[in-house]
Amino acid sequence: MARQENAQTRRQSRFEKFASCQAQGQCLMTPADFLESIVHEDLPGWSRKREVNNQDINRMLNGTPGIRKGSNKFFRQLQDRGIITYPEYLFLVTILTKSRRGIEIAFRMLDKDGNHELSKDEFLVVRVEDSEPTDIGNRSSKIEDLYGETRKSIANSSQALENAALPGGMDPNQWQNLVGNTTLKTHFFTPRGNGTLTFAQFSKFMADLQVEVSEMEFIEYSRGMPTVPEESFARLLLRNTALEAEEVAKYLDRLNSRLTVRKGITKQQYVDFSMFLNNLDDFSMAMRIYSISGQPVTQDEFQRAVRISTGHAIDPYVVHTVFQLFDNDGK
Predict the structure, then answer these.
(1) Residue 162 and residue 26: Cα distance in Å, rounded?
(2) Furthest CA-CA distance within the chain
(3) What percent of the chain has pLDDT over 90?
(4) Which helix (H) or strand (E) holds 28?
(5) DSSP character for 266?
(6) Which CA distances in Å does 327 have to 36, 80, 235?
(7) Which of 70, 227, 268, 293 is 20 to 30 Å from 209 at the Cα level?
């Protein structure tokens, strides 16, 4: 319970730190704020919030595209022209690192009448269990486990969407009364709120968001270059693990000593690997089969397990780089 409360406090603090707007004392994010909160670790955030009312919010929502015009640049294109509430923020970060199967579970939990479509009223009751394993950085700590000395598979950490306390004891209906329309509600259900959302549309939206965040991470570390250096790629994987600074340095030293030829990691390679990280729970089941035999997993076997369990393919050079970073003998 204490761990969940700490995670909840941390999430709320992060939301309030990066939110640039407020209405009646409650913080609100723009799409740009949301991306900043996910991608950037050490930005100072906003010390002063811009006060907005419903008229301001309606102006900010003008131009929000419908669900059929969504893309993996949705948040970047909107920038400050939109509003995201705290319940919506929790919803997005909770399922941001989920596999397609996890996203389907989330959709089915929201689909109260079982008609395979979400209405605005069904979406309004969304509440999420704000627990630590849903953090986006937790993918990196899981990947570390896959290459440890024991070669044991990771535990399944899928989280159900359940009730959680919201700021000031507000429930989603109170947020609706405070804000009215938001970017997500407008995008999903039209400005009038009379549209519906299918699972295919919901799944595409989340896949687009996952790609958009991965591309933003790549841009942050590539600094305008076409590739990210292998060491920077390694730092992206290690930045949210439980490793101490000295241990991180040892991993990086090991990588640098083993890589004789460096190609860099392209944006597409990084995005593909990020999509794999979202399917780690499925992949771990395939890895268990290998671990039963007690034999080391080769790079070819690793790639095969990825394809079979997740449907994703990872570039062989990326797999090679990951093995040089985490595996004891680099093979």
Answers:
(1) 22
(2) 64
(3) 44
(4) strand 26-28
(5) E
(6) 33, 43, 16
(7) 227
Among 324, 226, 225, 214, CA closest to 275: 214
Q: Which long-range contacts (CB under 8 A, 24 or more apart) does 115-122 make?
A: 116/198, 116/199, 117/196, 117/197, 117/198, 118/188, 118/196, 118/197, 118/202, 119/189, 119/196, 119/197, 120/185, 120/188, 120/189, 120/193, 120/194, 120/195
Of 212, 179, 178, which Cα lies nearest the Cα of 73?
Answer: 212
The alpha carbons of the chain give a radius of gyration, in whole angstroms, of: 21
At 8 the pLDDT is 65
Domain parsing of the chain, residue ranges: 1-212, 225-326
Contacts of 100 (CB under 8 A, 6+ apart): 203, 207, 279
Q: Rounded to an integer, what distance in angstroms lies between the CA atom of residue 31 and that of residue 75? A: 5
Q: What is the pLDDT of residue 148?
A: 42
Q: Do 45 and 18 contact (CB within 8 A), yes or no?
A: yes
CB 97 within 8 A of CB 139: yes
Residue predicted with more confidence, 293 or 241: 241
Is the confidence at residue 77, as pLDDT, over 90?
Answer: yes
Task: Give CA separation, 136 vs 43, 132, 259, 275, in Å.
Answer: 17, 9, 28, 12
- Cβ(143)–Cβ(136) below 8 Å: no
Averaging pLDDT over each range in 39-48, 76-85, 139-148, which range is the top one? 76-85
At 237, is the pLDDT very low, low, confident or very high (cuts 50, 70, 90)?
confident
Helices (H), the chain: 2-18, 31-39, 54-61, 74-78, 86-95, 100-110, 120-124, 138-146, 172-179, 183-189, 199-222, 230-238, 245-258, 267-277, 280-292, 299-310, 316-326
CA dihedral over 324, 152, 103, 26, signed as positive or negative = negative
Which positions ≥6 away from 211 have C-beta within 8 Å?
72, 271, 275
Please report the pLDDT score of residue 19 as a whole number: 95
For the stretch 18-76, pLDDT in tens is: 999 999 889 999 999 999 999 886 777 777 899 999 899 999 999 999 999 999 999 99
